[in-house]
Amino acid sequence: MSLDGPADTERPHARPDLSYGDYLKLDRLLSAQAPLSAEHDELLFIIIHQTSELWMQLSLHELSAARDQIRRDDLGPAFKMIARVSRIQAQLIQSWDVLATMTPSDYEAIRPSLGQSSGFQSYQYRELEFMLGAKTASTLTVHEPDPAIHARLLAAFRAPSLYDEALRLLDRRGLALPAACTERDWTQPYAPRSEVEAAWLEVYRDPQRWWDLYELAEKLVDLEFRFQQWRFAHMKTVERIIGFKPGTGSSGVAYLNRALSQSFFPELLSLRTRL
Question: Which residue from 14, 208, 250, 273 puts its CA 20 to 30 A from 98's CA?
Fold first, then answer.
């Protein structure tokens, strides 16, 4: 099967031994769902979370490459990669609509099967937050039992975020920023600075001169907008299914609500008031 559809079947194939199922490893993919109960909705719960992890894997792939392109001052490819992640976020938002077809009674029936497993333990979600600059050292502790995963997250924790690289680019382009912005301790949470807002304001007030930086800023704003929509949809889905009870690994709605107040690229939002 290809993008050309059934008509393509008459064309010679470079790999006649490679089938659609073999290429996608469908035997492994479709056997990775192992409900622990006889409850009908447990398969839904598993598939929603597994597909979310696949989308997050692609998001990390794209954002890591976009960060490298920004570091090289090659913004064209970065725009495509960041825009793709924004579209991935749209898919993730829609997945909560599917999960929301699960009623509170449906969830309570499968909850004993979940044990202490929780989305809070998703190392890809944590790495995605680190990539976007939301860094909290305490979130690493839950992954200490797995040395390989912990090492991977620690490397992401210590690396500059996507926004850190964007600010370094501003500085290299002549929109001077203090060293506290461009050579800081990357493990510390980012705090907004007036100098950064002033630099972005210059970009927004003369977009023709700074067109690619202006476009980068808007791509980042769209990325944050979609990510916050995803967080909001997650919070409302949890509220709809379990109300305000604690989740299996966090305080539930209260924890998700707090996350909504966190901005990845704060000056790109605050400058709008001053324009």
Answer: 250
